[in-house]
Design brief:
Layout (H helix, E strand, L loop, with lengths): L11 H4 L3 H8 L10 H12 L13 H14 L6 H17 L10 H38 L3 E6 L9 E6 H35 L29 H4 L1 H24 L2
Antiparallel strand pairs: 1-2
The structure holds zinc ion (3 copies).
The site of one zinc ion has 5 residues, from loops.
């Protein structure tokens, strides 16, 4: 992979993305990130270019935990159980967003860039996991109805003992039930997307708090032309952090739309 590209160099002073990250984004963004172990190689190349982000005494396990979830999701056979794994992934995203070690804001952005990539990668895996599950659920429930079979749902008897109380319901009704249940998941994903957006916005506002000046210009005089002021409308498209945020929010919206529209038909 081409590592050079003089015209891309100024970005590394902006928010820590080097030419490799930029090239990856140019090739279609976070959706084109190599999945599973391939990602690790990509990040390895990226992080080799930096000073080690954290000393071994204060390392976190975010990176490793994301790899594990991605691997487990890749291996999992499709069943309702996948929801459990996806929710574990959502909790991990929550942790990535607030990790004081791999996202230590006192460090220069180039040191914390891996965390932003991890959030992007994890959200890609989670949202596509939900999409695959929804697809499977529709098929599964249609097949039940076609075979005139039903799904068993266990009710919590509410007295602290394992449930033996069950109901038999048709595929179609079962699907509705699950879709309503997933509305909570969709809300949580939407909230995480907003939190991610806010975090990167705050990060890039530093030094530009009072921009633009009355003439509509960035107040920070000495920076290279590609270090875009976040108040500049073009920043949305050109600053890699914002592009990842937008992609993540787009993927979340697709899941939320699928859940909400489907559960209110
Ligand atoms: Zn950034
Ligand atoms: Zn961390
Ligand atoms: Zn500015």
């Amino acid at each position: 992979m081409l590592m050079g590209g003089d015209e891309l160099e100024p970005l590394s002073g902006n928010c820590g993305f080097d030419a490799l990250d930029w090239e990856m984004l140019a090739n279609g963004g976070v959706r084109s990130l190599p999945i599973d172990l391939g990602l690790q190689d990509g990040l390895q190349i990226a992080s080799d270019a930096y000073v080690s982000p954290v000393s071994s005494s204060q390392a976190c396990t975010c990176d490793e935990d994301v790899s594990n979830i991605v691997r487990n999701l890749g291996r999992a056979e499709m069943s309702h159980d996948i929801i459990h794994m996806l929710r574990t992934g959502v909790s991990l995203t929550d942790r990535l967003l607030t990790c004081p070690i791999c996202y230590d804001v006192s460090k220069p952005p180039r040191v914390t860039v891996q965390n932003v990539l991890l959030v992007g990668q994890l959200m890609l895996e989670i949202t596509s996991g939900y999409q695959k599950y929804l697809h499977w659920l529709n098929k599964h429930c249609a097949e039940l109805d076609a075979r005139n079979e039903s799904e068993t749902v266990y009710l919590d008897p509410g007295i602290g003992i394992p449930s033996e109380l069950s109901l038999q319901i048709s595929g179609e009704k079962f699907r509705d039930l699950v879709m309503h249940g997933l509305e909570t998941d969709a809300e949580r994903l939407l909230a995480l997307g907003k939190e991610f957006e806010q975090r990167q916005r705050n990060r890039h506002r530093v030094g530009h708090e009072t921009c633009p000046d009355p003439e509509g210009r960035c107040r920070r005089k000495e920076h290279d032309p590609l270090d875009l002021c976040p108040q500049n409308p073009a920043a949305r498209k050109l600053v890699p952090c914002f592009r990842i945020v937008d992609e993540v929010q787009g993927m979340i919206k697709e899941v939320a739309d699928a859940v909400v529209n489907e559960s209110h038909v």
